[in-house]
Amino acid sequence: MKVHLKVWRQTGPDATGRLVDYTAENIAPDMSFLEMLDSVNETLIARGEDPIAFDSDCREGICGTCGVMVDGRPHGPDSCTTVCQLHMRRYNDGDTIVIEPWQALAFPLIKDLVVDRGAFDTIIQAGGYTSVNTGGAPDANAILIPKTVADEAMDAAVCIGCGACVAACKNASAALFTSAKITQLSLLPQGQAEASTRVVEMVDAMDAAGFGGCSNEGECEAVCPKGISLKHIATMNREYRKAMFANR
Amino acid sequence: MKALKALSTSVGSKYLVALTGLSLVGFLTAHLAGNLLILLGPEKFNGYGHALISNPLVIPAELGLIGLLLLHIFKALRHVLLGRTARPQAYTRKVWAGAPSRKSWGSTTMLVSGIILLVFLVSHIATLKFGADYPSAEPGVRDLYRLVVEVFHSPGIVAFYVVAMVVIGLHLRHGISSAFQSLGLMTPGWTASILAIGLWLSVILAGGFALIPVWVYLFL
Amino acid sequence: MTLDPRVPSGPLPDKWDRHRFDSKLVNPANRRKHTVIIVGTGLAGASAAASLGELGYNVLSFCIHDSPRRAHSIAAQGGINAAKNYQNDGDSIWRLFYDTIKGGDYRSREANVYRLAQTSVNIIDQCVAQGVPFAREYGGQLDNRSFGGAQVSRTFYARGQTGQQLLLGAYQSMMRQVAKGTVSMFSQREMLDVVIIDGQARGIVCRNLVTGKLERYVADAVCLATGGYGTAYYLSTNAVNSNVTAAWRAHRRGAYFANPCFTQIHPTCIPVSGDDQSKLTLMSESLRNDGRVWVPKQQHDTRHPSDIPESDRDYYLERKYPSFGNLVPRDVASRNAKAACDEGRGVGESGLAVFLDFKNAIDRLGRNTVASRYGNLFDMYRKITDEDPYTEPMRIYPAIHYTMGGLWVDYNLMSTVPGLHVLGEANFSDHGANRLGASALMQGLADGYFVIPYTLAHYIASTPVGKVTTDHQAFNDAEHAVQERITALLNVKGSKSPRALHRELGHLLWDEVGMSRTDAGLKRALARIPLLRDEFWQNVSVPGDPDNLNKNLEYAGRVADYLEFAELLARDALHRTESCGGHFREESQTPDGEALRDDENFTYAAAWEFRGVGQAHELHKEPLVFENVKPSQRSYK
Q1: Whether CATH 3.20.20.80 fits A117-245
Q2: Which residues of A touch C210 (CB under 8 A)?
Q3: In a mutagenesis test of the C interface, which of A134, A158, A162 is the best target, namely the one with the most C β-carbons within 10 Å?
């Protein structure tokens, strides 16, 4: 089949971007969306033109490297699916697809569809860890963690850091990403020692990086390829409230 | 930690928006309960109005309400501006994400509805609080009832009020449940109930307030 | 030449303790004066950077991604082994050691494997302390499962995302050190050369992938943790950016490459669907715990699987290996799938797949139990193939998954270049000729958390290094060479994309150096690879500029390195005329078609020395001595 593309092309961070039309020919329904882009790039390379720059790595939805707006929705139309796991059988012959990069002040554009998500690392650096050095950890079974708690922590921990939440949010807020890590670590006994400093520092880092605040609309949850719940943002807000009154 | 600094972050700011917003919802609820007395006739209504303004606490309470409102506006505006700054380049195409998103017409129009409500509020206070001071049969008691009935016999004003109440409904439809989320009170077990309460409370408040001008216009 | 692995003396269980005591230490106050470069931020690289940063060294960490958390360790699904014996089912350090040696088909170094088993228990403790949400029992204790045919339950897991959770734990620890200033993070940098001064690895030259600028970094020692070379085969379960470049550049500078022919082919992948496919997706091996593998008895049986009666089905693993059945090791399962397809009994459109059937499991356990165990894998399968594994059998086929070979290292994880250390999948050491399931995560973290902090300290404390800066002539030369190569790539201006050439190389390797290899096939590959390489340098097309993000340029450089590396891969496979682990030579098999090792002639690690592109490598041997485990022919009958 054949699909028409309108792809955001921008040569660099300071250049002006615009949508450029391409046609992807001979697309098989079993191809993934990114394989469709690969094939477009092959034709561009054959013509000696600069291929479309887009990020991807594992192509199985776990590394969080890929991520583009497909027809105005991060990662495309399927819920709980990264764009590398979106397949062309979702489309019909002759469809037109608009492809744009994540847009956010905190995610400066590098080229075409590639943005720099280093701001997420900055947020984690502010407190997304437990302060334990290698060695000297107690036996893993020394602290019992009920299965329900471990499962809940895991629900938050599955975040892949792709940035779809920021891309979807009208405020380009990183609240879902930040809160997922805060929830994971605040649920587990290992993370509780630093719970109040962690939430304050991570929220500060999130603001400083240039992300907006949360309007509680939940577009982030709807587009999250891992289905991270909005409840974690409530948890972050609760942890923040506790920290405000904590004696430290 | 320093509470003031904490309240100036994105999370702390929303905390204040939520607290002030919920306080204003509390005021609206009381206000509606009082206003509905108009359905019981002039004595009850004017008596309530008189009791209210003769209370020595009313001035501090009004100042407090103004303070809450200003803080609400200031923090909410800051939140909106921050969000705008955070996305300097708009998408050419953007669609709503669909379930389970809570995005609604209310949530997308908070700024517009807020501005409309502010305009409404000024006009509402100018028309009624600072409107004609008719004396009532009882000495010293203002005949607010008469003023209200007069005002609400203008179809234009009734329409304006009804529209404004739809707007307030929209504002609260997102605002009430959102406040619980901002305060961290939206726990999984309560989420469905809070969302439902938010929706119904906004319908009740908007409907209740809209009922008064319509009722007055039609029946009084 | 015989290589010295520098294995400490003494009884096996005491070697590591003794070695740690004998190792020199670096004074805490002096550590910040020592700079260590770590290339790669997967499990091995991130855990090493975090641990060395905690100790106070000045660590420079590099990765090609936009964030260190993207490294491909993140995609490991099944779990991580540790000899905790929490299940009281007979596990012990010795048993894990024994299983790993045996699983590796007696081609790994005893002392390394024993140390791996020893440190495995600390890894779990460390990860739990970091907040890794491992699966738990209702009582709050850690849950374990049996994995990859192990007879004990020693695998710890976090749903189907164990690699992700372990990597995020290491990444977070590293981020903590970045905040503290002990680790400096350089993301979006690709290492393109190692700089060697006075015989010691003293720095790297890398390309800033965003600006295109070449950058120089100097250090007292260099660690490579850059993963395996599975993408040499083009289609593999590795990420599309995984590459051999860093290891190959180090190899060209003098680091020997060991056992490149030991590649692991994973039996449970989703089959290839078309020519445009960019990668293969693995489904956890745990599927074989309940799924039954079969093909039709007749050739070219095109009936729908549900129309094929039991009497016409061949559950070949259960038939041939009654005691292990569907749980035979990866190499055995893969090879048998290939054999079935070669006989014309493969299923699906391409005929290159076998069925993995859950009907019995669903009948026995109920759909809900099966869903709770494998739901995410079933969903993934459905997403990719548009078929429902609850109602029809999955189709699976083997794919390149892991590479046991890698840069040769001694017991201290140091390569043949002093100061150049190699960690994780990038080295060759611990898995021999075949890796057991859930052991890769264990090795990566053991190297980074618990081995390199000791051995690198010893190197730094005992080796005088001269004071050099990035202005040194060796840096000039290295950067110049890198620059010339980039210019050369851009100047070919041919008509074939790097992808097209990579795909050709991949097909060739898969056909001739894949699941089973013959003398004739390997020779065909060796004849064809130099031609492909010539074609690349005459006809590759790399549009765009060198001075900004140019993914095609990055890719072209990696393919160019694969075209050099592939020759070594084939040459190593050709020289090893035995069948062993992941390397099956058709000339060396038992009468009933099982792999036949040749212990007399091949009980060694083959470490190859670079002699120039297109020149024959020189072979060095590290004899493997088995003092504690007696090599025996593996049997899973």
Answers
A1: no
A2: 110, 116
A3: A134
Distance (Å) from the C-alpha of residue C321 to the closest C-alpha of chain A? 32
Residues 6+ apart with CB under 8 A from C392: C304, C305, C306
End-to-end CA distance of chain C: 39
The domains located in chain C, with CATH, are 266-401 (3.90.700.10), 490-603 (1.20.58.100)
CA pseudo-torsion sign A237, A241, A247, B5 = positive
Could you tell me how far CA C460 lies from the centroid of its own chain?
Answer: 28
pLDDT tens-digit series, residues A152-209: 999 999 999 999 999 999 999 999 999 999 999 999 999 999 999 999 999 999 999 9
Query: Of C70, C288, C330, C395, which one is the catalytic site residue?
Result: C330
Do residue A85 and residue C384 have CB atoms under 8 angstroms apart? yes
CA dist list (Å): B71 to B79, B188, C127, C143, C368:
12, 29, 45, 51, 52
**C159 compared with C190, residue with greater pLDDT:** C190
Which residue ranges make up each domain of chain A?
A: 3-100, 117-245
| Inter-chain touch A204–B9, beta carbons under 8 Å | yes
Distance from C-alpha of C379 to C-alpha of C388, rounded to nearest angstrom: 8
Tell me which amino acid residue A208 is: A
C residues 119-158 lying closer than 8 A (beta carbon) to A: 122, 124-131, 133-142, 158
Residues of A in contact with C353 (CB under 8 A): none
If DSSP codes are grouped into helix, strand and coil, which group holds residue C385? Answer: helix
Contact by Cβ (8 Å): C444, C425 = yes
Are the CB atoms for C324 and C284 separated by under 8 Å? no
- What's residue C274's pLDDT? 83
Q: Round to whole Å and give the CA distance between A64 and A124.
A: 15
pLDDT tens column, C572-617? 999 999 999 999 999 999 998 889 999 999 999 999 999 999 899 9
What are the angstrom distances between the C-alpha of B34 and each of A109, B133, B213, B219, C263? 56, 19, 14, 19, 80
Whether residue C384 contacts residue C223, with contact meaning beta carbons closer than 8 Å, is answered with no
Sign of CA dihedral A44, A50, A52, A53: positive
State the pTM of this model: 0.96
Please compute, for residue A220, the number of CA atoms within 13 A of its CA located in the half-sphere on the CB side.
31
Residue C210: which of A110, A124, A132 has the nearest Cβ? A110
- Which range marks the domain in which residue B65 is found? 8-86+104-219
Closest CA to C256 of C269, C245, C247: C247
Segment C175-195 mean pLDDT = 98
A182 touches chain C (CB under 8 A): no
Lateral strand order in the sheet of C354-357? C263-269, C394-403, C354-357, C292-296, C313-314
Residues ≥6 apart with Cβ < 8 Å to C82: C96, C120, C121, C123, C124, C154, C156, C442
**How many independent structural domains does chain B possess?**
1
Total number of residues shown for chain C: 637
CA angle C356, C362, C366 (to 5 degrees): 155
In angstroms, the Cα distances linking B63 to A116, B22, B51, B168, C320 are 48, 17, 18, 22, 87
Region for residue A13 given its phi and psi (left: phi exceeds 0; alpha: psi -120 to 50; beta: otherwise) = alpha
* Identity of the residue in A89, A141, A154 whose CB atom sits nearest the CB atom of C133: A154
Rg (alpha carbons) of chain C, rounded to whole number: 24
Tokens standing for residue A190: 């290992």
- Domain over A3-100 is classified CATH 3.10.20.30: yes
Query: Crossing angle of helices B58-85/B10-35, nearest 10°?
Result: 140
Residues of A in contact with C138 (CB under 8 A): 146-147
Beta bridge partners of C155: C81, C145
